[in-house]
Amino acid sequence: DLQICQHRAPTCCTKKMEESYQAAVRRERAQSIQALNFELKYMIVGHITAFQEAFESLLRFAENRTSSLFETAYRPMAKEAAEPVKKLFTDISLYILGAETTVESAVLRFFDSLFPLVYSRLINPGITDLSEDYTECLRLTRQDINPFGHYSKNMVTELSKSLWASRMLSQALSLGIEVINSTEHAALSKECSRALVKMQYCPHCQGLTLIRPCVGYCLNVMRGCLASVAELDAQWREFISTLEYLTNEMAASHELETALAGIWSSINEAILHAQLNGPQLSATVGKVCGQPKQQEGNLSSASIVPVKEVTGTQTFVMAHTSLNNRRREFISYMKRSRTFYASIAERLCDGDLVMRDSSTCWNGEDVV
Fold first, then answer.
1. pLDDT tens-place string over residues 3-17
2. Is 142 within the bounds of a domain?
């Protein structure tokens, strides 16, 4: 009653043993593919983690720099500006990680929140009653009167350009993990299971437990079983080329690092622009939002303080170097994995599975 290991000679197998062998080859093949995938997956997961750590380090540095700007140059509004600053950098981080948001919305939302503070603490420091309605009016007015000049738009342009490649790389790495996971759980067809049993276990039915499959026979069986996986070859090569392009884009001119490190400078220029145009802004805001309550004697607007470079270059250089080194190591490794799916049958037939340097092997029917 044997279905797979039929042979003219006497046999020591039963139909139940054949079923056990089919379960065994399915389990062994899944484990073999997992073992092959492990190094590749480990490298990608490790790079995702390292990339995120280096990026977060750059982001924290840029956020601390921006917070220092308010504490040193714009102390009257430093406490209230802390939350919008934190929100800006959180939004940038979420954008990199693939959230449904844009750099433009994050930056403009920040300047919407900043204008009421600049207006009430620097341009008209005598305002005593800044109600929610008045604050909201200032936020909406910001979009029409553009108090920060071209600096807010320039910041959007610079960040959008430099963060795009980082966002795409982050998404591409996650896609790579999904592809590898899907190959691990690809089900073997009934024909494949039978072919693997015939190759690996049918010799056992004749007591030939030390005979292993011939190399050419193993390759034929594995290529047939893994045809659907091998079809990923062209797309995988294209995927590697895309990763290479994105890492080169990120490294070009250190755009990511430069843009993040320059956020504080863009915000400072924007605030200085608003202060210099304070009288015109006050006149326009008065027409749109009305006049808020003022202290007696109306304080003069805050003096404009030139801001020097905020320190902390060492942290920035370390994070930048770490990110660059990781990029180079990663893309070098990934380029070596270009043929991963094309050569998967050869790799599975390597090692202990087949008989090498021997005059006898199993060809599916007999010992040759």
1. 888 877 788 889 999
2. yes
